[in-house]
Each structure stands twice: as structure tokens, then as C-alpha cells.
């Protein structure tokens, strides 16, 4: 019996397979092994797949660096979940950049989720909301948007726990939301104004 990937036996796949779509994956373990067994593959789609944190990004990077994988169309991914905890880690930025470079085709995410509180803050609460805290959230937001620049979001963008959202935040998110169809704010707060709604509608 051949190796398996989420219950799929590799011996069931033809080595001449050119298009592979796998949905609803909870993790990417075994993906590299599958791609190595499909030398003719030119289209890979992983819709509704959760990519969570550095380890999943590194697995995706390893998969896209297989020399036999020559994608012709965009690499379509499911959900990318990224939080402020990953900002200090330079390997995350490198992995995101290398994924887009290794594929040599656009990398499209159906859904991107930004978490603006650290894991500890999510568990204990953000504490007293000060001007310094709000300013740090804006710095973190700019860094997360810059981190995701190599990728494209063609579906939904969710921003969690961004407090006192203003028109300036909409502008900051614009590069990430340029091709998205849905935008959602969760668990935060905002200061709506005429300029806020104008920017939101425009972008």
C-alpha cells in the first residue's frame, strides 16, 4: 500500500495527472510527497485549506520548490491565518516571499485572517486600552500588510481585534483588499465617520 495524504492513496493517482484540487485540508502534512509522485502536474489548487503559522508556510514552501512542479496557472490556497505573534520572526517573511518566487505564478488566497492581538492577549484580554497600545496596533497592521504583499487575496479578508478602526486603517488595508470580494471586522471597535465610509466604499 502506498503512502497516503488525507486518506488518498498515491497509487490511485496517475503519474500523468496534470490538475490536482484538494479541498478542506486541515494542515499540509504529506503534500510534498504527493507532488513528488506527480511529475506532470501543472495546476495545484488547495481551496478551503487552513494554512496556520510558520510551520504550514514552510511545508508549502518545500512543496513548491520541487523541481518537477511547473505550475502554469495561479496557486490557489484556502485560508491563511496570520497574527501579530509572527511579526518578529524573519523566517515567516522569507517563507512568504519564497513561496511566491518558487511558484513563478501568482499565489492567491481565498481567505486571509489577520489577528491583531497576540495569543496571550487573546486569552487574557488586551488590558487597559492606551494611546500607546492603539499606536502599536497600527504599526503591527502595517507590518502584517507588508508581510503579505507577495500574495494575492481574491476572496475574503477578516481583521480580528483591531480597536478604534478609522479611515486611515482602511487605507492601510487597501493593498491587501484590492482584489478581495468580502471584508469583515471581528471583535474590534471603530470610530465611523463620513471619511471612514467613503474610504471603505472606495477600496
Structure notes:
With 203 residues, this protein is α/β, with parallel strands linked by helices. The chain has one domain (4-202). The protein is built from 7 helices and 8 strands. The chain has helices at residues 31-36, 53-64, 90-103, 119-124, 131-147, 167-177, 194-202, and strands at residues 4-5, 8-9, 19-21, 43-52, 75-83, 107-115, 152-160, 182-186. The protein has a 6-stranded parallel beta sheet. Strands 1-2 form a two-stranded antiparallel sheet. Helix 3 (90-103) links the parallel strand 5 and strand 6. Helix 5 (131-147) runs parallel beside helix 6 and helix 6 runs parallel beside helix 7 (194-202). It is elongated, with a radius of gyration of 19 Å. The model is unreliable at 1-11 (pLDDT under 50).
Structural class: alpha/beta
Shape: elongated
What string gives the helices and strands in order? EEEHEHEHEHHEHEH
Strand order of the largest sheet: 3-4-5-6-7-8
Total of DSSP H or I helical runs spanning 4+ residues: 7
Which key phrases capture this entry?
disordered N terminus; alpha/beta; 203 residues; 6-stranded parallel β-sheet; 7 helices; two-stranded antiparallel ribbon
Summed up, what is this model?
The chain has 203 residues and is of the alpha/beta class. It contains seven helices and eight strands; from the N terminus they run βββαβαβαβααβαβα. The longest helix has 17 residues, at 131-147.
